[in-house]
Write a structure and sequence with these properties.
The protein is an alpha/beta fold. Helix content is 38%, strand content 11%. The chain is built from 9 helices and 6 strands, in the order H-H-H-E-H-E-H-E-H-E-H-E-E-H-H. The chain has a 6-stranded parallel beta sheet with strand order 3-2-1-4-5-6, sandwiched between helices.
Length: 229
């Protein structure tokens, strides 16, 4: 459906796609996302990152990139400050997960350089998609920009904090009970643009470290359904 301004009303793409599948005769009663882990890929991951697989503290995966464009990206220094808080308060093992894209590698380096603690930087220890799923499967928490790996985490039933700025979360909402969506409020949001046109990145700057840390505390200490904005 369209709004009076001519734009489409934000609605979960799951609804759109299941409606198409239903019209073609498919059974769409089960809408849950689901992924499976290859035991061989899991073994490879545990061999490559034994300190993560054997961590005594919670494993936290940070996903700071975004193929859509930089407008979806939270500030690197804030990811670093959040990682430091998780390590100081929970003894967390923090992994920074990025794609091979040079821009994302730079983001990972910025986060690791800004952190007071040693983080696992996957731009220095490349892993394949199968190994990435295995990594996510052992994560106690995933903190992600609005990007693809967020859906891997949800499909694997992880606890997830998703950070939204330029895009309306309604488009990709799954109704998953262990996800907290933090939405950066700004007069210009949601703009839907891959690159911010303002002098300051207001929407993502509106998401504070305190907001993310509070959400992390709620998820790590209680698995019941949460929501936030």
């Amino acid at each position: 459906p369209k709004l009076p301004n001519g734009k489409f009303k934000p609605n979960s793409m799951i609804d759109y796609y299941t409606a198409i599948a239903s019209a073609l005769g498919a059974d769409t009663a089960d809408r849950d996302l689901e992924l499976f882990i290859d035991p061989q890929e899991d073994k490879k991951l545990r061999t490559k990152l034994p300190e993560v697989a054997e961590s005594k503290g919670p494993v936290v995966v940070i996903v700071p990139g975004g193929a859509f464009g930089p407008s979806k990206c939270w500030l690197s220094v804030r990811f670093a400050q959040t990682a430091d808080w998780l390590i100081s308060n929970y003894g967390a093992m923090v992994v920074v997960s990025v794609s091979p894209d040079p821009a994302e590698k730079q983001i990972a380096e910025e986060i690791c350089d800004s952190s007071e603690h040693k983080l696992i930087n996957l731009s220095e220890i490349p892993i394949g998609l199968g190994e990435l799923k295995s990594l996510f499967s052992i994560a106690d928490l995933v903190i992600s920009n609005d990007t693809g790996p967020r859906h891997i985490a949800i499909a694997l039933r992880r606890k997830v904090i998703s950070l939204f700025g330029p895009n309306d979360p309604a488009w990709t909402d799954t109704g998953y009970e262990n996800e907290i969506q933090l939405i950066g409020g700004a007069p210009c949001a949601p703009c839907g643009k891959p690159v911010c046109k303002e002098s300051e990145h207001l929407c993502m700057q509106a998401i504070t470290v305190e907001m993310v840390c509070n959400a992390a505390k709620r998820l790590l200490e209680n698995s019941k359904k949460k929501s936030a904005s």
